[in-house]
Write a structure and sequence with these properties.
Blueprint (H helix, E strand, L loop, with lengths): L1 H31 L18 H6 L18
Length: 74
């Protein structure tokens, strides 16, 4: 019976240790990534006069922009 009690204490201690380690890793991750927001905007668009001007100068969207079909979202 004494061996059973000792092994139970060891298992409980191991589980508590793993939970504490997991908690530390989660808190560290949340602290390091707090407020991190990455966008995939084209470089140099922050200096454009309007959204249309920024899209016209984006080389990835040159063939997609059609002057006759503009959409505006409100």
């Amino acid at each position: 019976m004494e061996i059973f009690v000792q092994s139970t204490h060891c298992v409980i201690a191991a589980v508590v240790f793993v939970l504490i380690c997991l908690l530390v890793v989660m808190v560290r991750y949340m602290y390091r990534h707090k407020g991190t927001y990455h966008t995939n905007e084209a470089k140099g668009t922050e200096f454009a006069e309007s959204a249309d001007a920024a899209l016209k100068n984006d080389p990835a969207l040159q063939e997609a922009v059609d002057e006759s079909k503009k959409e505006y979202f409100i």
